[in-house]
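Each letter names a residue; structure tokens follow underneath. Both lines appear below:
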Amino acid sequence: MDVHWPVFLSLVLVSYISPGPDTVVILRSSARGLRPGLSAAAAGALCGL
């Protein structure tokens, strides 16, 4: 099996750099203030556990 390392590494890099839906939710909540932003981050951490 032949691996195309430049293509593979570029896809991995893009997947690490791009924000996910959790980041978008926290950013939107943070735009409303500190308390909603921290609440969204805490709720996301608790749901992840």
Summary: The chain is about 80% helix and 0% strand. Residues 3 and 39 are 43 Å apart (CA to CA). The helical segments are 5-17, 21-30, 34-48. The two ends are 38 Å apart (CA to CA).
